[in-house]
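Hi R.,

Here's the chain you asked about this morning:
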Amino acid sequence: DNERLLAVVRTQIELAGALRKGRRLEAANQLLRGKAPNIIAESPRMRPVLELISRVAPSDANVLITGENGTGKGLVARALHALSNRASHTMITVNMGGLSEGVFESELFGHVKGAFTDAKVDRAGRFELADESTLFMDEIANIPMNQQAKLLRMIETGEFERVGSSKTLHSNVRIVSATNANLHEEVAAGRFRQDLLFRLNTIEIALPPLRERREDIMPLANSFLRAHAARYRKNLPAFEEKARDLLMQHQFPGNVRELDHVIERAVLMAQGQQVKANDLGLTSGRDDSARLVDMSLEEVEGFLIKKALSRYDGNARRAAEALGLSRSAFYRRLQQHGL
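And here is the predicted structure, written out as tokens:
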């Protein structure tokens, strides 16, 4: 009886493994055909990206995703997780740009009750929550230099301690990180550890900006139009020709995220059954400058942020410095303006 039961269990385990492998292979095939859920990539510039995702995802290799703000780094991270052996577990995400130095260790490694004033109960950190899964660390360049050694130790050994505890814990985590900064320049400037960079970018996936994959603008715009029209219960099946032309001409310094924001605004503004050019709220840079006096303070702020991003090729750190903003303040404004 025991042998028969064990045989049944083994068969079920093998079947479950085969089904998972089949689903991953099908997802990988869909990815390469440009038909993966939520990934729209018809441009030739995206083909190497899709092939790299397909090859790397099933492994446990750490991946660094680079690209300008709004290029879809989070979407690529979700695809890597969905095609991995860890897909049955929830991917854990943390925005490093939004963590102040005071909460950095507590957020990543957790804390025990009484470790500091507000520590009322024990709390697991992101590494602990991501055990047997994937941890996606966005805006990785924003890690304070004095915290990078602790992160390096965790990545190398899998070991860490909660804040306020001497008990060493272990977590089996795959690291996927993302940045819009040039980490090699950050290393040269002494702001990022080279050994940490080596650990993070076993494989690097570089995403092109939207202006370099213009074949994807209208497929993306149509997808966003369907989603936002359904969300706001509006009958808007298409764009008028002038609106399509304007979308194809725009440079989109905020990339895919900006396009999504533009389409959402157009859906809200549209009054007929087509999105018209003036619903998009897009104008040339010259016209924008002439209209500054007519803009609200919020519109001027969004205009200046777009200009700074465009001037520094999507590098958020340099754009923030040019505008006299801290990184955290700049990221809050990017989110506020849909960039």
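One quick note: The chain has two domains: 2-208, 211-336.

Cheers,
M.
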